[in-house]
Amino acid sequence: MSRTRVHNLAISLDGFAAGEPQSLEAPFGHAGERLHEWMFKTRFWGEGGAEGVDDAFAVRHEVGIGAEIMGANKFGPPGWQDDPDWKGWWGPNPPFHSPTFVLTHRPRAAIEMEGGTTFHFLDAAPAEALAVAKEAADGKDVRLGGGAMIVREFVAAGLVDHMHLVQVPIVLGRGSRVWDGLEALEDTYDIEAVSTPSGVTHLTFMRKGTEG
Amino acid sequence: MSRTRVHNLAISLDGFAAGEPQSLEAPFGHAGERLHEWMFKTRFWGEGGAEGVDDAFAVRHEVGIGAEIMGANKFGPPGWQDDPDWKGWWGPNPPFHSPTFVLTHRPRAAIEMEGGTTFHFLDAAPAEALAVAKEAADGKDVRLGGGAMIVREFVAAGLVDHMHLVQVPIVLGRGSRVWDGLEALEDTYDIEAVSTPSGVTHLTFMRKGTEG
After folding, report:
1. B201:A193 CB<8 A
2. Given CB atoms, is A14 within the 8 Å cutoff of chain B?
3. Which one of A6, A8, A17, B83 has the lowest number of neighbouring Cβ atoms within 10 Å?
């Protein structure tokens, strides 16, 4: 059974997955890289990194994934659709290594990158995009890569089986908030929380009655 | 040095300390009592309760406190100001046992209760109210009792030395949110998080450079 999963989505205490304004120079706005420092210190991120609790969560990003869906705001800074040469933030070998579907109202031709990543561009509603991605995932799971807007849309549509958020002890005050429009997730998901020595708290949402 | 402290303020994952609508029958609106179940299970709440991590946090509510300040929304349901006989939710012996200052734009005469609690009614800005409460606390600390609105007002005004929030794994979606209007608390406070077996996460904010 192919599932839809969110991993390593870092949020502030007040629920923002990115600050503002987002730009080429500041992809996460006034948040800078503060939401992701916990991850940079893990072995998941690089040789010599720590293999503690944060790493145990982080590595699941890769396990059993056959395709990714991401929002337009993750693929590039505002206006990337006007740049025909924009190929994402990640250089020639992006860390997705699978078919990667970018949701945008201005789709373009697919881009084949090194390392198994091919960017496909889709103008589609969540359920429709997920059907396409599941076909491409060939029985494996689909990762929903973010940002906050697309995650909350898919959760609201009942399409997410597993969600892993990482709450970082900062208060951003403004930006893109993962909670907006959501309510009573505890009815649909078993929720666990664990704080780690780095200061973050991992939250897992596992769909009830499934292996979510 | 008399400090200003917040204890046991329970919030949902999305930051709401109460749901809506608040009423005599439902003081916390659609949240019901779900934000406080963790506390009902502690020895702090009653004989036979558990003495684990949740209790260790909960009991600090009492320690070293000489006065409380609360918002009008904590003292009674909407419209309590129209009922001359309203004396709070807590019966003849309220759990404050100290001078307790209710901030309201419609003050009334003080009410002396059993057990050391006297309700005083103040129409005052945060700093002014705090000066009055500190005088009454006679060298001890002042507890800021909530709800969310008054806590965020006092935090924004730089008046809070220690804040303890308890994040409960539910998503309320609407109500009174503690984070609104706040930003960059990490600049002012050292922040710690610890999850406990009950499923909640205790967040402590300790003012930097003090004993907060």
Report:
1. yes
2. yes
3. B83
